[in-house]
Amino acid sequence: MRIDVVSIFPDYLAPLDLSLIGKARADGVLDLAVHDLRDFTHDRHRTVDDTPYGGGAGMVMKAQPWAEALDAVLAQSDSGGKPHLVVPGPGGMPFTQAMARRLSDEPWLAFACGRYEGIDERVYEHARDELGLEVSVISLGDYVLNGGEVAVLAMVEAIARLVPGVIGNAASLVEESHEDGLLEYPLYTKPDPWNGRAVPEVLLSGNHAAIATWRHEQRLARTAFRRPDLLPPTVADVDVDVRLATPGDVPELFTLVRACWVQEAQANGILDVPALVEPIEALRASLDSTQTWVARRAGRMVGSVRTHVRGDSGDDLFVGRLCVAPDQQRRGLGRSLLELAESTAPDGIRSYSLITGAQSHDNIRLYKRAGYRLRRGEPEIPGTVELVKRRQT
Ligand code: ADE
């Protein structure tokens, strides 16, 4: 595979000389060249940026040095082939293992590292229309870096290690996080025990079937806890799409919660129920401290639930804000959302608990049918009841 990288900080890419990628370069498996964008400027200051048309903060990378740099990259082609141009940027498509795999099949990749606010849009148009390149804008994640160089280091490593010959033991590529949509199982090596901690017994059993089962269960549990967005929603209702809530869902979720808890207020004769008085800012902040799912039917938000781990020993999963839009109730969605919430409990959770109004008889019936029991004693919040369910092991 051939890789060209254009940057105003070529030294930033020096780590590509190290480790397995460096070895692949030395072995001739990877042909990697880094170019300095400033070599394609023609003024004394080697200027690569200018102020944005239309105003605004920051500077924009000029089209001309980029066009010349791309011409220089293309001029190296001996076979008439063209590179797939990758421009890292926070506004791009998310970089995934599947994307790394697709890009690892390309014979030639060129990376254009933007800096400042970004590159003049006409560079992308020129690359596509005049140079005939496939252009992909790709983001490393939902955060902003100072430039594309760090993203290129990450992408080149993820892509190049999939190129045949770069990693000696190809089998090690198969059992990895993300290769089949699940995260990796926990790993242990000698000694056992270490520091008073034992290795899980099944791994010492020599029973390969039992080990495979254990590892698969660990992968599912880990994925459910750390990356529930990777798991298919378990809600049985095929018309309903369930996803982890994003900040963009907050206004609709706020409205849904208010609508649902009016029923609660009516049933219990109190208006200052936490869900009814929670400010929208607190709801937005709760997306960071809980796992919140929203359910949509035909695009409309019709239900939600959220969980967080609590208890002195962190062994209780609290299920909160379980709600279904008033006109969508009695169709099994509440029960499905409750099951979904329970199914994402991490290792170490021994019980699920929730709170509802003491007079919310429909809710209490639903929870009892799902295996919850009323907790004895005085509730923490007057006028409510607490329900708890032991986790089946
Ligand atoms: N450049 C700046 N931020 C970036 C990001 N999140 N991903 C890729 N390139 C970037």
Q: What is the fold's blueprint, element by element?
A:
Layout lengths: L1 E6 L11 H8 L4 E6 L12 E2 L9 E2 L1 H13 L8 E11 L2 H8 L3 E5 L8 H9 L5 E5 L9 H12 L47 H19 L13 E5 L5 H19 L5 H4 L2 H10 L1 E7 L2 E11 L5 E9 L8 H11 L7 E7 L3 H9 L3 E2 L9 E7 L3
The protein binds adenine.
Dominant shape: globular
Output the CATH homologous superfamily of the largest domain: SPOUT methyltransferase, trefoil knot domain
For this structure, the CATH topology of the largest domain is Alpha/beta knot
Query: How many β-strand runs?
Result: 14
Helix content: 25-40%
Number of continuous helical runs: 11
Distance between the termini: 49 Å
Largest sheet data? 7 strands, mixed
Structural class: alpha/beta
If strands are numbered along the chain, what order do they take across the biggest sheet?
Answer: 8-9-10-11-12-14-13
How does this structure look, described?
- The protein has 393 residues and is an alpha/beta fold.
- The protein folds into 3 domains: 2-172, Alpha/beta knot, CATH 3.40.1280; 182-229, Trp Operon Repressor, Chain A (Orthogonal Bundle); 232-390, 3-Layer(aba) Sandwich (Aminopeptidase), CATH 3.40.630.
- Helices cover 31% and strands 22% of the residues.
- The chain contains 11 helices and 14 strands.
- The protein has a 7-stranded mixed sheet, sandwiched between helices.
- α2 (63-75) packs parallel to α4 and α3 crosses α5 (149-160).
- The protein is globular.
- The model has no long low-confidence stretch (mean pLDDT 91).
- It binds adenine (ADE).
- Residues 88-90, 139-141, 143-145, 147-148, 151 line the site of adenine.
